[in-house]
Amino acid sequence: MSALNDTPVETLSFEAARDELVTVVAELEQGAPTLEQSLALWERGEALAARCEEWLLGAKRRLDAARAAADSGDAS
Predict the structure, then answer these.
(1) Which residues lie below 8 Å from residue 11, measured CB to CB, with a gap of 6+?
(2) 52 and 13 in contact (C-beta within 8 Å)?
(3) Is 17 within 8 Å of 55 (Cβ atoms)?
(4) What share of the chain is helix, strand, coil (3-state, %, to 5)?
(5) pTM, two decimal places
């Protein structure tokens, strides 16, 4: 059984990408049956990690903007 699925990474929520990444890492640690499968898992894992980072950076930007708005409101 392989952790790979056909869902485009760019459509995944943070939680879905994170959960699938955990599965991919576990499968890589167990050792995929072939080199080709290992490479496919690695590539999917890299894409999932990038998607998680994208979500986290977006959340940080939103928090920074909310803090800046709150700070400018306090200064009035």
Answers:
(1) none
(2) no
(3) yes
(4) 80, 0, 20
(5) 0.84
Tell me the two tokens of residue 11: 């459509």
Contact yes or no for 24/41 (Cβ under 8 A): yes
Question: Count of alpha carbons within 13 Å of 33, Cβ hemisphere only?
Answer: 3
For 41, other C-beta atoms within 10 Å of its C-beta total 19
User: What would the pLDDT profile of 15-46 be if each residue is shown by its tens digit?
Assistant: 999 999 999 999 999 998 899 999 999 999 99
Structure-derived torsion over alpha carbons of residues 33, 34, 39, 44, reported in degrees to the nearest 10 = -40
Q: Domains plus CATH for the chain?
A: 13-74 (1.10.287)
- Residue 66, token pair as written in the block: 């909310």
